[in-house]
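Name: histidine kinase
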Amino acid sequence: MEVQVPNLEKRTGQMKDKKMALHLGKIGVLSLLFYGAVYFENAQQERLVVLLFVFVAYLALGIGRHFLLRNKDSWYALSFFLDIGLVYTLEVHSRLLINYFFHFFYLIILLEAFLTLKRNRGLLIGAVAVLVSLIKYGFLIYYKFSLATVSQMVFFLFANVLILVMISFAQYHREEREKKDMLYQELLDTHKQLKKYVDEVSRLTLVEERNRIARDLHDTLGHHMTALIMQMEMAGHMLETDPGRAGQLLEQGKKTARESLAGIREVVETLRGDPAPVRAISSLQDLVGEFSRKTGVQVQLSLSGSGPDRDPAAEKALFRILQEALTNAVRHGQASRVDIDLSYAGGRVDFLIRDNGGGNADFQEGYGLQGIRERVEAGGGRVEFTSRDGFTVKGFLSGEEDQ
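Structure predicted for histidine kinase:
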């Protein structure tokens, strides 16, 4: 199933553009409010200069916060308290005790804090802005008490509290949506990673299966073809001197060819997913006996020890290991005798395969020996090869892993 992945980079870019548009809009609204404030109170000369200076400082602080403090959460939040102080300074230097144009500056601070900060910090800054905005009403009530002023103060208080609650509620939903988006993105990343792992496992499984089939084909064909070639050579030598024996060898060669074909079919059945026949211990003895009859090589199989039910996969691997070792003894070492010692203990089987062929201290591990090593390591065991006075294969299978 194809998962639809949202373009988060595009969304992030859109959010940045939106924030920039809001910032520019804020500057425009503040400029209009400031113009209305100075026009409303007809500010002139020194008062106008002071108000203009404080207003420019207020705008500069907002610009600096947007571009310089965006990634510094603590300083970013503290800068809003400076905003509140500068707006209060504008009110102090205003000719009117209550200039409603300056009063709206607090509302802009409140909105910006909630839009750019986490909910708790936005609430704190909003509460401070509301309280500072009501200071002038306190002075007015103290010096000139009137019910109109009190009602106006209460109205602005409740209006600001209502705005705080509404914005806080909206902020809560925004944070929950961001958490959901973050979790969704994590799930998508995890899904992508898992898909990579699945693809890699599938690839490795395919490679491992290919190698296993190649090993089986190599072991089966190599073993039977070696025996078949030796039978044909022996039949050729005896064709004139002992035609009867040559005929027997040719019949054995036909049987060997059929066994080779059966081995190939077994590998094909495994490739199709059908269960391959399990090699029992009697098959090891049959293997040794057949090989000895076909090649004339003397093979001695020695079994010792016992244990629980033997792992079929380990038995099959052991069969292939002996098959390849016998083939190598004749093909590369021209051996006339091979001794095989198998020792069972629990779920483990130790094996020692020695021949009297021509040793080679500088031998290289070919495909056959690599196949033996792969089978042994896949069975949780170890193997070593030595070529001195013949060739020796020594190792063990633990039976803990599937072949």
